[in-house]
Amino acid sequence: MQVNRFIIAALITVFIATVAGCTGNTDLGEEKPNILIIMADDAGYHDFGFQGSGEMETPNLDRLAKNGVEFTDAHVTASVCSPSRAGLLTGRYQQRFGHEANSPPTDMGMDTSEVSLADALKKQGYTTGIFGKWHLGSAPKYHPNRRGFDTFYGLLAGSRSYFPAGYDSTSSRAMRYNRHYVGFDEGYLTDVLGDSTSAFIERNSSNPFFAFLSFTAVHTPMHAKEEDLNRFEGHPRPKLSAMTWAMDRAVGNVVTSLERSGQLDNTLIFFLSDNGGPPFNNSSNEPLKGWKGLEFEGGHRVPFIVHWMGELEGGSRFDGLTSSMDIYATSLAAAGVEVPTRLDGVNLHPYLKREKQGNPHQKLYWRKEGKAAMRDGKWKLIRLRDYGYRLYNLDQNIGETVHFSESNPTQFEQMKADLQAWERQMTEPWWHERKEWRTVTWDIHKALMENTTPEKLRP
Q: What's the pTM value of the predicted model, to 2 decimals?
């Protein structure tokens, strides 16, 4: 069955009206804020106006940053898509439940015993929806509708064409409305996902909502609308610029929907990328070293905005060490729920209200396929299995080129011990990426640890 985006919006409207009518509780909307997470896919750290880019045009996101809080030391839990999303939606290190590698096999996905953020908010009376990329398991038991989301419109896989394409109903790249194959027969995927999120927002005024706008932009394939490409004719990175412009436009339309429905002041908005930009979409992670898939800062330090016009002072920057896991705890606290002790994330609200000082996290950890890293304040440790360690001081050397282990042996040994102690709490990966990718990523890490140029970037 092929339907266009306007029919999709109508279907979503009917579903939301049904859910809202069944809850019988209209008071929650006055007491609890809406929660909106907007996630870019494979966006470069430097590729937004508010991040200092002079090439990318992102006026709507720049406005969100100007009126919100911009984070300078925020990180996701993994440098690739699927485990990063698992960490965000559970508020826990995904290594606790074996979700360490990317692209789960057909019969695997995010551990069903984990309580997702959608599960937790749904129990508090929230209407929940996800629009776009899932990538946390395509088997029925991992479906978004089984993980706390009332509404799902998107794809189960990690990427797809941005234009109508011939995916059949069995493909994980096909578009689905809840469990039904629908596809879309016109438009541009980034616009369609923004429109669907706007429809969800505008028809959901009687109950608080949790919406997750999970873009596929700016992940490959590099597809852009002709009129957007025309805007960037002669640009050094025309396709990426056009795709970024389209994503920013969709964000602007969603924020306009919040304004139009009178919900902007009572909506807590998070914006971030799921990991660093890769070489394959021509992204830039300056001034950071590395890219998607790596444990250097360019792999997991991301643009991060928190916007809550009715609650937080806008136009400020926050320099504390922060994780995407904190979105879970912050959202629950905003909804008036006690933050569970099982979470690895923390509530950011006291820091943003300046009731607490310093870092939300003194230490953060990463691990994937033989590569591992940790932060301890300004210090960064990277370990490559069967090769060795590097210790960096990010205050003095954000580019991770100068090794400090010999000049700081006590810090070096303590962080090695801390990393090993953390790993003893974790679970072995439930699946692995293909051997050829593990090999080339190991080689890239070794080259960058030696400050040399990798011989190849992919198998």
A: 0.94
